[in-house]
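Posting this for the archive.
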Amino acid sequence: MADHDPDGAMESAGSGTGEEPPRQPPDGGAPGPADPSSDPAGDEAAHPAPGHPDPAARDMAADQQDYHELTGALGHRVQQVYNTFYGRVDAAESVFGFGAAASPGLAPGSVEPAEIDRVLAHYLHPDAYDETAGRLQSGHILVLTGEEGSGRRAGAFAMLRDLLGEDAALRSLSPANSLTHLAAKGTVKPGSGYVILDYAGETESDAVQDYNLRKLQEELRRRGSYLVLTASPADRRRLALKEHCVPWTPPDPLPLFAHCADRMYGAAFLDLLPAETLDELRGLVAELRRPRDIVRAARQLADGPQAALEDLRDSAKQTVRDWFQTGPAPEDLLPIAALAFAEGLPERTFEELVVLLDDHVRNGDRPPGEPVSDEDAFPATRPPLRQSRAAWNTRAPGIAGPVHRGDRCRSERTLVFASPRVRGLVIGELYALYGYELWYPLRRWLHQLALDGGPRVREEVARGVALLARHALPEVEENLLPSWSDGLSSQRLTAAFVLQFMCDDERLASQALATALGWSKSGSGQLRAITAAMAFAGEAGALYRMDALNCLWGMTVRGQRVAAAARRSLVLLLATAAAETEAERAEFTLRYLRTQLAHARDLGDRAAALESVLQVLEAEGLTPGVPLTAELLRRHPRTARHLGSLWSTVLLSVRRARAVTALVRTLAALRDVPSATGSVRELGEAMRGALDRRQWQGLQANMSVAVRHPDYAVPGTQHLVQVLLGNLRRHGSTRNSLSLQGG
């Protein structure tokens, strides 16, 4: 089961190997020597020559710098979200802030009845629905195969609710779940419904798949439960499920439109509209293929038939298509193509990128690394200088243009699209209309930006590539991500951001998860494992929390470099959860850490687990200088009991000195927060339940010494220390400084 309470034992992860490729200097000079690195623990690097830096230490420092950049980007996204709106806004299905859209069933976990009610509010059974539901009732497993947007998810929920009743417990499982995992865990609950949206397929042999399928099917029958999967018809990996596959097609557009209008506005509402308006409405609706678009069109009728017609005509899409149909000249096309992958940058920065792209287009036939001839570099006749900035006034009206951003004194022009949707439409048209002559130099340009671009440039490149994946996923998976995920640090960070941005689109989220899990496997190498860890630190980890936690925890027992990256990602996962308004994800992560720490019996595993937990207790949050634990206690007081349990366990180890320091730092950060007293008191109560009298006396002695440090010897900190320790006075006090006993 993908998102259950973390009680299971950790799946052991192996070790992979990888090499840092030669680094290309920014000035185009000769590449330097490769950085020797390997994944297995105890073999981090060869002994460096005298006078030369340790390659392993250099790599670790570079990774740490990458995480500084990643932390800054995540902090900016969580704490400060800018939205620019052009024209009328329909935000009914929008999410503003960190994380992917919370579509029902997309994130693994329980699916509440209210969420299902929302999905099925205007549901209309398509043809063959009863026959398909009958197959599920008899077989207990069903795979709905159809194109994205065909209503597969709504059909799965509708059938499960019809079979189990409106109050039945429905649960969404991770698309990375395998039949082996489901059949072996024995977690199928009686009378329950399970869905796996966008199933990722199997890698086991056909015989193993068939055995596990029969085992799972028998368990579902015995428990009176049902499993429905949705999948693309193009995916051929799930051979064992072939006999359970049923093609799924959406209902006809016009009957669904009429059904929605009747439910929303009353019977015969459409018949009251003028005949000409109704005919145009029906003609445009008949061209729609996705049920959600048809429901949206019906909702738009609330603003009047003209508003619905305007939305159906989709002026933005038509504007983009009309512009491309004119056959724009290269001096107009290349800036728009560059903007698709580098939006929102200052104009002076963007112009440099356009020049680079133009150079790649003009020299597309030149092999990489071949020097430019004097004739090419210094042509005999120079073209006249164009007023390129003025050209934006007429270059692409309604599509893109300059805006001024910044304060009054430092305001400068920034180039943006008319809306985020237009950016995606432009990328779709670029890929649909242009071939190798454009995309080969465009790929080389993207590779250069991923390698040498600054943090903001690379983040925009990743955002554009994620949009490209909507239209050309194979292009992204084959020509961009493989080299970036195994490249230099800037490229790996760009690849991680691509996967995070892909999780913003529910159509791509499962593909992003499958890619990250593939990179994390030991056979994929050390560098790709680090890239996967960085991807799971953001949206991918927020959406697929159990998959992310299991993957990162497994990597903490690998080589030093991979383990360090995994621990930093665990910290970032918890830090982003701490910044949210709801405490549930933060509690879930802390509960997971408690469970894994309790189950770590082997000496090596326990040492790795203690180090992972201690780094969480020592870490800063998204706000520089503020301990993560202080942010958790301030924003989410319910996390106090989990933190108390973790602190108590680490205190009973050889790492107690660091744990005491982290505890005092946390209290010092909370000294000016009046509401923190209750959280600190609960933290002390949790620790009281885990420490005996002698251990607690040792903690009292250690804390009394720690608060004498000049940084902490202030009344506010000492007061919170007294609040923490005051809960344990029933154990008595001591005049002697006692050491905590190791465990």
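The CA atoms of residues 150 and 621 lie 42 Å apart. The two ends are 33 Å apart (CA to CA).
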